Amino acid sequence: MNSPTDTWINPSPLAPGTLILASASPRRRELLSQLGLEFEIRPANIDESPQVGEVPFDLVRRLALEKATAIAQEDQIGDRRFVLGSDTLVVLDNEPIGKPADESEAVRMLQRLTGRTHTVMTGIAVVDAHTGSMLAEVVESSVEMRTAPLEELQAYVATGESLDKAGAYALQGGGRRFVNQVRGSESNVIGLPLEETRTLLHLARGLSEPKESDSESQI
């Protein structure tokens, strides 16, 4: 499988000092760095509980927007800054699968996922701190996993890699051994779809630049 970042080095969609990542995820930080961007990290503290009847697509989009909006509204954020929020879910049979609470739950999650194809959904959102305008998108990838014996799953979980990962596996790590094929963005499965993020940041910059006939543009 090709690297998800090969085409996206140094696009510089935003000026230095204007981008904030509203996430503490080391995976998102590493992925965003591969776009050649300078950014500040300010994790958003929001309630990530799903609303009654909320489907996974709507949930990841809402959470990405809420994370970006929460940071954009902080008093110390200056004008002409953009905040990037993101949220990722593993979805099987239209049911979100989060991070395991312990090793036993991680093994059970992997038993559900292996031998089947599941979806990874990531919501990405950019909020202009000056205007409050926003853009949001949901990116989906399909992940086909091979069957695996219980002993192999237990051995993988024992490495500790599963415990802070949605779906209890890391595509960028040892979890790749279980994956037959990814259809769509691999970086999306890791936590941040790079192509779509790059495009969203370009749109945010371009549509927020003042026009001669409009002193206050909107995203």
Summed up, what is this model?
With about 220 residues, the protein is α/β, with parallel strands linked by helices. The chain contains 6 helices and 7 strands; from the N terminus they run βαβαββαββαβαα.
Can you describe this structure?
The chain has helices at residues 26-33, 56-72, 103-113, 150-157, 186-190, 194-208, and strands at residues 19-21, 40-41, 82-92, 95-97, 117-128, 134-145, 179-183. The chain has 219 residues and is of the alpha/beta class. It has one domain (19-208): Alpha-Beta Complex (Maf protein). Strands 1, 2, 3, 4, 5, 6 and 7 form a seven-stranded mixed beta sheet that branches. Helix 3 crosses helix 4. Residues 1-12 and 210-219 have low confidence and may be disordered.
Keywords:
7-stranded mixed β-sheet; 7 strands; Maf protein; 219 residues; single chain; alpha/beta; disordered C terminus; elongated
Percentage of residues in DSSP E strands:
15-25%
Order of helices and strands: EHEHEEHEEHEHH
Low-confidence stretches: 1-12, 210-219
The end-to-end distance, rounded to whole angstroms, is 35 Å
Radius of gyration: 18 Å
Can you lay out the helices and strands and say which pair or pack?
Elements lengths: L18 E3 L4 H8 L6 E2 L14 H17 L9 E11 L2 E3 L5 H11 L3 E12 L5 E12 L4 H8 L21 E5 L2 H5 L3 H15 L11
Parallel strand pairs: 1-2, 1-3
Antiparallel strand pairs: 3-4, 3-5, 5-6, 6-7
Helix pairs in contact: 3-4
